[in-house]
Specification:
Blueprint lengths: L10 E7 L3 E8 L4 E8 L11 E2 L1 H15 L8 E8 L3 E5 L17 E2 L7 H10 L16 H11 L1 H5 L2 E6 H10 L4 E2 H7 L10 H6 L7 H4 L6 E2 L11 H7 L6 E2 L3 E2 H10 L18 E6 L3 E7 L9 E5 L7 E7 L3 H9 L4 H10 L4 H15 L11 E3 L17 E3 L7 H29 L5 E5 L6 H11 L3 E4 L4 H13 L6 H8 L2 E5 L6 H26 L1
Parallel strand pairs: 1-5, 5-11, 5-12, 9-10, 13-19, 19-20
Antiparallel strand pairs: 1-2, 2-3, 4-7, 6-7, 6-8, 13-14, 14-16, 15-16, 17-18, 20-21
Length: about 550
C-alpha cells in the first residue's frame, strides 16, 4: 500500500450530485477541503409528481466543477475521485444514448428523480403482493425506490422507453460508468434501492412476481450483472475521454460510488471523538446515528447484526460501511418543507426585505427574530406551546412508510405578521426534529442503541435546526469540522480507490473530524415529552379523519 504523505502532496476529489446542483471538492488526505465549486442542474416538472433531469447535463456539470477545483494543482497529485448522487433512475439505450422517461418524448430528459412519486400506485401493488424482499425495506415498497419506477415505465411508456432501454442505472453508478466505462454497480445503490441482497444476489421470483421478468435476461445485464463494494477501484481508472473533460490524468483511480446520504454518513460517523465527553466515546460505531439533512433527510444507523425495523429501510449488508449492516430512516421533505412554509407565508416579502437590509439570510434573520421574541415572552422552544405541525407534506418515509400522509398545522389564527411567520418556522423545525425522534424510537424498540447524533448537510448549518434536534431528542449533536461532510465522504471513496488507505473504516478515521458538539437543553425534556405526544396524536387524528370520510 502506498504511504499517505503530507496533505500538500496528495489530493482526492469528491463529487456530490444533489437534487439541484453538482458540487466538487479537492480534499487533502487528512480531510481538509482545499477548494470547492458548484453548478446548478436543470429540473423539469412535466406533470404533477413527475420530476426529471438530464444525465448529459449532470455529467457536464460534474466535469466543469472538477476542472474548477483542480485549477493550479499538479494533476499527478490527484490520486483518486469518488462520486455520490441522489438515488435517481437513469435510462440509456443500447448505444448508451439517453431515452426519454416521459410522454413528452424529449430524449435528453432521461432521469426520473428520487423525489418523483409517479409510481405510487405501482409501489402500493408491490407492497400488497408481500414478497419476502420487502422485509429489507421496512415491509413497504417506497415510490422512491427503483422497482416501482421501472414498472411504471413498462406499463406507461412500453414502446417509447421500455423497449428502447438497454441500461438502467442508479445515478451514482451512471457517474462511475461515465468516468471509467465499467458497468459494475455499487452494492450501496443495488442493495438500498433495487432489492439486491448479497451474497445471494438478485431474487428472480421477486422480479417475475411484479411483471418485470424481462430484466432477468443476460444475468440482469440491464440493471447490474457485476457488483462491488463502495470504494472499490473501477476499471482502469479515468478513461481518456473522461480525463480530458475533467482536466485530469487518464488512469486516475475512480471509486465505486455511494448514494449522497451515505456519503454524508462516511463523512461524519467515523470521526475520532476522544476528549469531547460524548456518550459514544469508547463505544462502537453502532452507538452513532448519521443524520444527513438537506432537501430531505436520511437517518443512518449501523449494526453488527441485521436489525429489522418496521417502516425503516434495511437491514442492508455492507451498503455504507463494509461488514456492517445499515438501517436507513428518512423524511421525504425537510429543507424543502421549511422553504415551503416560510416562502409561502404572507409575511415573507417583509422578511426578505428586512433580511436583505441587515445583510442576513432569511433563516439567520428568523433565528435572531425568534431570540428577540423569546426575551419578550418565554423560553424560545416554548413559543410554540399552542402551535403544532405534522411535517409529512410529501408523505412519510419513516417510520410509518405511508406516502399518502399529508401535512397538518394546528393553532393558526387570522394574524399574518412577521411574528406569526417566525413561529410557524419554529414549529416546522421542531416538527422535523420530532420526526427524527419518532424514527429513533422505532430503531430503539427494534434493538438499536443510539446515544449520539452526527449531523451534516445544508440544514446542519442552521443553528436553530441543530439545537432543536438536540433538544427534541435529548441527545448530543456532533457537527463535522468540514461543513461539506458529504463531499469529504465522496473523497474518502477516492482515497480508498487510490489504495492510500486499506479500508473505508481507516479512511473515515483519518479524514472525518469533529468540529463542534451541541448539547441538549435538558430542562426542556418535559416540554418535548408533551409536544411529542401531541405530534403522535396529529398523525392518529389524520388517519381517523380519513376513515370518517370513507364511511
Amino acid at each position: 500500500m502506498a504511504s499517505v504523505r503530507s496533505s500538500t502532496e496528495r489530493y482526492y476529489i469528491g463529487v456530490d450530485v444533489g437534487t439541484a446542483s453538482v458540487r466538487a471538492a479537492l480534499v487533502t488526505c487528512d480531510g481538509q477541503v482545499k477548494s470547492m465549486a458548484e453548478e446548478p442542474i436543470h429540473i423539469w416538472e412535466p406533470h404533477p409528481d413527475h420530476y426529471v433531469q438530464s444525465s448529459s447535463d449532470i455529467w457536464t456539470k460534474c466535469c466543469s466543477t472538477v476542472k474548477k477545483v483542480t485549477e493550479g494543482i499538479e494533476k499527478i497529485k490527484v490520486k483518486g475521485i469518488g462520486f455520490d448522487a441522489t438515488c435517481s433512475l437513469v435510462v440509456l439505450d443500447q448505444r448508451f444514448q439517453p431515452v426519454a422517461v416521459n410522454h413528452d418524448g424529449i430524449p435528453e430528459r432521461n432521469v426520473i428523480m428520487w423525489m418523483d412519486h409517479r409510481a405510487a400506485e405501482q409501489a402500493a401493488r408491490i407492497t400488497a403482493a408481500g414478497h419476502s424482499v420487502l422485509s429489507r425495506v421496512g415491509g413497504v415498497m417506497s415510490p422512491e425506490m427503483q422497482p416501482p419506477k421501472l414498472l411504471w415505465l413498462k406499463e406507461s411508456l412500453k414502446e417509447s422507453c421500455w423497449k428502447e432501454a438497454a441500461h438502467f442505472f442508479d445515478l451514482p453508478d451512471f457517474l462511475s460508468w461515465k468516468a471509467t466505462g465499467s458497468l459494475a454497480r455499487s452494492l450501496c445503490t443495488l442493495v438500498c434501492k433495487w432489492t439486491y441482497s448479497p451474497p445471494e444476489g438478485w431474487d428472480d421470483t421477486f422480479w417475475t412476481s411484479i411483471g418485470l421478468e424481462d430484466l432477468l435476461e443476460n444475468n440482469y445485464s440491464k440493471i447490474g450483472a457485476l457488483t462491488c463494494s463502495p470504494g472499490t477501484a473501477l476499471g482502469e481508472g479515468l478513461t481518456q475521454e473522461a480525463a480530458a473533460a475533467m482536466g485530469l490524468l487518464p488512469g486516475t483511480a475512480v471509486a465505486a460510488s455511494l448514494i449522497d446520504a451515505h456519503a454524508g454518513g462516511l463523512g461524519v460517523v467515523g470521526a475520532d471523538v476522544t476528549g469531547f465527553q460524548l456518550p459514544c466515546e469508547h463505544q462502537p460505531l453502532t452507538s452513532r446515528l448519521a443524520l444527513i439533512c438537506g432537501t430531505s433527510s436520511c437517518h443512518m444507523a449501523i449494526s453488527q447484526d441485521p436489525i429489522f425495523v418496521p417502516g425503516v429501510w434495511g437491514p442492508y449488508n455492507s451498503a455504507m460501511v463494509p461488514a456492517l449492516w445499515l438501517n436507513e430512516g428518512g423524511q421525504s421533505a425537510t429543507g424543502r418543507l421549511i422553504d415551503h412554509m416560510v416562502k409561502g407565508h404572507a409575511a415573507f416579502p417583509e422578511l426578505k426585505e428586512k433580511a436583505e437590509r441587515s445583510q442576513d439570510s432569511v433563516y439567520s434573520y428568523l433565528n435572531k427574530h425568534l431570540e428577540t421574541m423569546a426575551k419578550e415572552q418565554a423560553n424560545l422552544d416554548q413559543l410554540t406551546a399552542s402551535l403544532h405541525v405534522w411535517p409529512d407534506f410529501h408523505g412519510n418515509r419513516s417510520p410509518l412508510a405511508d406516502p399518502t400522509l399529508k401535512g397538518m398545522v394546528v393553532g393558526l389564527s387570522l394574524s399574518q405578521t412577521l411574528d406569526d411567520l417566525a413561529l410557524l418556522y419554529l414549529a416546522t423545525v421542531q416538527a422535523v426534529a420530532l420526526g427524527t425522534r419518532h424514527i429513533l424510537e422505532a430503531m430503539k424498540e427494534a434493538g438499536h442503541c443510539i446515544t449520539t447524533l452526527f449531523l451534516c448537510g445544508g440544514l446542519s448549518k442552521n443553528v436553530l435546526f441543530v439545537q432543536m434536534h438536540a433538544n427534541a431528542t435529548g441527545l448530543p449533536v456532533v457537527l463535522p469540522a468540514e461543513k461539506e461532510a458529504v463531499l469529504v465522504g465522496a473523497a474518502i471513496l477516492g482515497g480508498c480507490a487510490s489504495l492510500d488507505y486499506k479500508s473505508i473504516t481507516e479512511a473515515m478515521v483519518k479524514m472525518a473530524k469533529v468540529g463542534r458538539v451541541v448539547k441538549p437543553h435538558l430542562e426542556q425534556e418535559n416540554f418535548y415529552r408533551r409536544k411529542f405526544s401531541v405530534f403522535l396524536r396529529l398523525f392518529a387524528h389524520q388517519r381517523e379523519c380519513a376513515q370518517l370520510m370513507k364511511e
